[in-house]
Design brief:
The protein is of the alpha/beta class and about 350 residues long. The protein is about 35% helix and about 20% strand. It starts with 5 loop residues before the first helix and ends with a helix.
Length: about 350
């Protein structure tokens, strides 16, 4: 259920962006095998992120959604400074992150998809949470707190109470939900302003997913932390997000307040994704036709057109935009207040209503 304050919070966050991504491009260079090289074949480059611009407000939850392979995880890793972009830049509080990447990584933390893989099985929970403090050489908190007190506070904020009970335990002694809380505590111990969560509940049992999502929202509300949540599940975005950016084949194709995007989607791809979300009244059945996205073979025009239901049904041809869909590239355009879409047909319909 979308919070009643979602649209208002999204508008407020837009006035106070803490992080901004400008025209970001990340390309992975292709490799070709020995035989193919001898035959003169060239490796195809994969344009994983292909001109993404967005911003995240202070205290806002932004969901980046899309199918596997759409570029959302690569975008998240680029935001973290783990992948170097080919073009574009990332600004944190108005400054390019390259100026002081070490300080930036303290203030922007990542929560990975697999808590078991993110934790060292040979380290105690105390050591795992304290590791970030030691890497950044933080010996005292802002009010003179020692390391043990900082670790205990982070574990308590992550819902592991009493925290001292977990100090000497190892990851294998905890449940999946508790391990994810430890990963979150490892991020919280550095007092970040932004947390990037990559599929934070996809590996958890359904019974604990709600607890972790509720924890993330509590952190947003109590600490005013901004959250970037990467997910393939629009149902999760429906639950947690203030704004949503829907990605397809390296680009954002629709972005806006969660309530707008999820109840009045404008892009055919977003509508297709919503058709399998129970919260949106959808049912689980195959919707999208054709091959899944391939970042080494980006089609001309609208990159969604080979799978677009509007073209398959003849609606685009009837509206006179099919040729544009197949041949004219386009960027995001604001068709409603704060609601941006990259779709020739949606733009035509918006103009006809104006």
């Amino acid at each position: 259920m979308i919070a009643e304050t979602t649209t208002g919070r999204a508008a407020e966050a837009a006035l106070d962006p803490v992080l901004r991504v400008e025209d970001l491009h990340v390309t992975f260079r292709g490799r070709v095998g020995l035989v193919a090289g001898l035959l003169g074949r060239k490796a195809a480059d994969a344009r994983a992120v292909d001109g993404v611009s967005l911003e995240v407000g202070r205290g806002e939850v932004l969901a980046i959604a899309g199918e596997s392979g759409c570029g959302k995880t690569t975008l998240a890793r680029a935001i973290m400074g783990l992948v170097r972009p080919d073009r574009g830049r990332i600004l944190f509080e108005g400054r390019p992150i390259e100026r002081d990447l070490r300080a930036y990584r303290r203030r922007v933390q990542m929560v990975f998809q697999d808590p078991a893989g993110a934790l060292n099985p040979r380290q105690t929970i105390y050591e795992s949470v304290a590791e970030g403090l030691r890497i950044h050489r933080i010996h005292r908190g802002p009010n003179g707190e020692g390391e043990e007190e900082l670790v205990a506070r982070a574990l308590a904020r992550a819902g592991l109470r009493p925290p001292e009970r977990f100090f000497l335990l190892y990851p294998h002694e905890l449940s999946g939900g508790q391990r994810q809380r430890v990963v979150i505590a490892g991020a919280l111990v550095l007092e970040p302003q932004v947390i990037v969560a990559d599929e934070p509940v996809s590996n958890l049992d359904a019974s604990v997913r709600g607890e972790i999502l509720r924890l993330l929202l509590e952190l947003r509300d109590t600490l005013r932390i901004s959250l970037i949540v990467v997910t393939h599940d629009l149902g999760l975005a429906w639950t947690i997000a203030d704004r949503i950016a829907v990605m397809y084949l390296g680009r954002v194709v629709e972005m806006g307040p969660a309530e707008e995007v999820l109840t009045r989607p404008l892009h055919p791809y977003t509508r297709a994704l919503l058709d399998v979300v129970p919260e949106a009244g959808g049912v689980e059945r195959p919707i999208l036709q054709g091959e899944p996205p391939d970042p080494t073979r980006i089609p001309p025009g609208c990159r969604f057109h080979p799978r677009c239901p509007e073209i398959a049904s003849g609606a685009a041809a009837a509206a006179g935009v099919e040729a544009a869909c197949r041949g004219e590239d386009l960027g995001l355009a604001a068709l409603r207040e704060g609601h941006l879409v990259a779709c020739h047909l949606a733009a035509l319909r918006a103009r006809s209503k104006a």
